[in-house]
Design brief:
Two copies of one chain form a homodimer.
Chain A lengths: L13 H22 L2 H8 L4 H7 L2 H8 L6 H9 L6 H14 L4 H12 L1 H21 L5 H21 L10 H17 L3
């Protein structure tokens, strides 16, 4: 196979998109959300900077995609909130691991590092959590939905931190069923149980 | 009061120690654990680099102190493990908040950012968690002590992440009693309950 790097700029197809995502993860990790420029990411990917707007609608969209945050309220509604309410947490754990295990945790580390460095990234993450889960949690009709969402976020982000960033064993290499059985009840209580 | 910066290098007293801690938090945040040098931190603090060894025994000790990790197994034994076993988690939440709220979460953010950036910092954190809590958890005689410790670490670090880094409300400004009542039962189950 030909090394695409030797053929100069890539065509505006899926190759370009994948190259931009890989470059974005590197540059966001090195320089954080504020420090990373669209130009620097495009240069690393060896594509035209205009492709960032074309594929991701700008730097924020590229960041969201690079750290696996393209999950929308619609996606969550279909994959998580559809089904029995008392198995909500089981579906959350399964989907969380399906999304993040996929990138070996590198995307999660980028996200955490950005949030720990720049208020803009922390704000994006807050808005993401509220936008994706907030409305549906209120629909459940539980008391204190904001506190529940924040507690839920603390355990879910802590799972990511322990598994992908600190890599604390045996949690880092635990299988999905172990995490469903141990962390599931915590998340279920935060969402619908007695606080 | 005289501005100490105008008097050149600081004397080798508590002032020096405080200046080194403040400088360390800045430089570790900017450059990560591996990137930050003892020389750069001492220069920022306007003290002799030898003071780092004098006060902290080296770069690793300075990092631990800067991110509020100087908690020892002895300290934990006295402040957390002493007392009724079924109130273990209550004491953990209280002590965690007492330690970290103190620096407004800045130290926690430095710690998380370092762990997300450098394997050496992640390893230090793993070793810290295991050293401080591991032995005592095994003393409790519970099953699966390693898994329990990792689950415990995931919720506790997630609390820090949500409160100090993402600053997810209402958790970010929740009072101690609210967090004891909501997160306490989770931690207690991870430590001594049915998994």
């Amino acid at each position: 196979m030909t090394d695409p790097k030797r053929r100069g700029r890539r065509p505006a197809g899926e190759d370009t998109k994948a190259a931009l995502l890989a470059a974005a993860r590197e540059v966001f990790t090195e320089q954080g959300f504020d420090g990373a420029t669209v130009r620097a990411i495009a240069a690393r990917a060896e594509v035209d900077p205009a492709m960032v707007n074309h594929w991701f609608g700008g730097k924020q969209g590229l960041f969201a995609a690079a750290v696996q945050l393209p999950i929308t309220p619609e996606w969550i509604k279909e994959h998580v909130f559809a089904g029995p309410v008392d198995e909500l947490a089981v579906r959350v754990v399964r989907q969380f691991l399906a999304v993040w295990d996929n990138t070996g945790g590198g995307a999660f580390a980028t996200l955490v590092r950005s949030a720990a460095t720049q208020e803009s990234a922390a704000q994006m993450l807050r808005e993401f959590i509220t936008a994706v889960f907030g409305g549906m949690l209120r629909e459940l009709g539980v008391d204190q939905p904001e506190l529940r969402l924040a507690l839920f976020g603390s355990q879910l982000s802590g799972l990511g931190l322990a598994r992908y960033v600190i890599r604390l064993e045996p949690l880092a290499s635990a299988d999905v069923e172990t995490l469903v059985a141990t962390i599931g009840p915590t998340l279920q209580r935060y969402l619908t149980g007695k606080l």
